Amino acid sequence: MCVKVACVGGGPAGLYLSILLKRQDPSHDITVHERDPEGSTYGWGVTYWRGLLDRLHAEDPESARALDAGSVRWRDGVAHVGDLTTRHRGDEGHGIGRHRLLEVLAARARALGVRLEYAREVTAADLPADADLVVAADGVRSTLRERHAAHFGTRLTAGRNHYVWLGTTKVFDAFTFAFVDTGHGWIWCYGYGYGADRSTCVIECAPETWTGLGLDRASEADGRALLERLFATVLDGHPLLGRPGGSPWQTFRTLTNRTWHHGNLVLLGDAAHTTHYSIGAGTTLALEDAIALATALREHTALPRALARYEAERKAALLPVQSAARYSAQWYENLPRYIHLPPERMFALLGQRHSPLLPHVPPQVYYRLDRAAGQLEPLRRFKRWLGPKVARTVHARTLTTRD
């Protein structure tokens, strides 16, 4: 059956969904509407892990091969704490420029017969009337979702820390963390390569550090110059790069929705959910949304049933990721609790920041417990049992407080 699909938003989620739907049935009539001109995009590089690439190869080998070819890889993680450095071997990570990612997906969508309309903003008032399915892939500020915000039950929760997303010509050979004591509190960066001559550099600090350094009052250029001085050692003298028009400091907003569909309108990617950038899962989750929605539409001819299946599957899959993101953000918000540990212990707990147990156990005790659990199976089983129990208790208390 030929289906007419209007996808609003030409980011990774919308483009990949259009690819998968066209592969399932070339007769589908699919148009992707993107409000920005082609080739213009915010952001620098994005990260993903080997498991996602394997899944993309199973869904569409051609686009997966192109993404793989356009990515850089690393295996190590490095933490710089003041003058001390520690390095650990980890899982294989991948970085790709957001511009290159969108270029690959757009080219593949076009080759399959998807119509791409750039510099074309579609609002809730002018949706295609004859579309069988309308996909809101228009990001965290989705205008299509806001039209029915009460129905979707949209909730935005602001984090405490301030952050800014920058680029640099310094090419990191590992996923790099750097923590600097400024005299006004700690400031830190996450750096990772995404090309032969570029890396992403996300910088974060507590609000009192942000104001103490004058970053709340500095111009964009002056603020970048200050950050270059603070991170001169890890940058090796390379500059930080901002976006045209400036790179504003923000606080991260976690977005959730009670339901993800309304009639023939369905939410996808950041329009449906966000998770804190410190776990590096945003692009992966968007592409996994697209895979789940395409699968549900293939397996269920009745649209309401397909959308309900998609929502239920993705909400269940997101629960542990959202929990990990929440605890990861809290780890950084409580950095003074961990920063004065020996670097190898601090880095070990940085790797454990997703744990619901960690905030409730003294860091040195948790470190020793984790090391012991790595050697004793009964302790591993106890840790796996206790962690979710603590998470459920804390979650229930949070809901009670909100009510």
Overall description:
With 403 residues, this protein is an alpha/beta fold. Helices cover 42% and strands 24% of the residues. It has helices at 12-24, 50-59, 61-69, 98-111, 143-147, 149-152, 207-212, 220-230, 232-235, 282-299, 303-333, 343-351, 363-373, 377-402, and strands at residues 4-8, 29-33, 45-49, 72-81, 84-97, 115-117, 133-136, 155-168, 175-181, 186-193, 199-205, 240-241, 250-256, 261-262, 265-267. The strands form 2 sheets. Strands 3, 4, 5, 8, 9, 10, 11, 12 and 13 form a 9-stranded mixed β-sheet that branches. β9 and β10 (186-193) form a beta hairpin. α3 packs antiparallel against α4. The relative contact order is 0.13.
What are the salient characteristics of this protein?
403 residues, alpha/beta, 9-stranded mixed sheet, 6-stranded mixed sheet, 14 helices, 15 strands, disordered C terminus
Q: Write down the overall mean pLDDT.
A: 91
Total DSSP E strands: 15
Distance between the termini: 46 Å
In one word, what is the shape? globular
Our count of helices gives 14
Fraction of helical residues? 40-55%
Strand content: 15-25%
Query: Which residue ranges are poorly predicted, with pLDDT under 50 across at least 5 consecutive positions?
Result: 394-403
> Taking Cα atoms only, what radius of gyration do you get, to the nearest Å?
22 Å
Task: Give, in order, the helices and strands.
Answer: EHEEHHEEHEEHHEEEEHHHEEEEHHHHH
Structural class: alpha/beta
User: Mind describing the biggest β-sheet?
Assistant: 9 strands, mixed
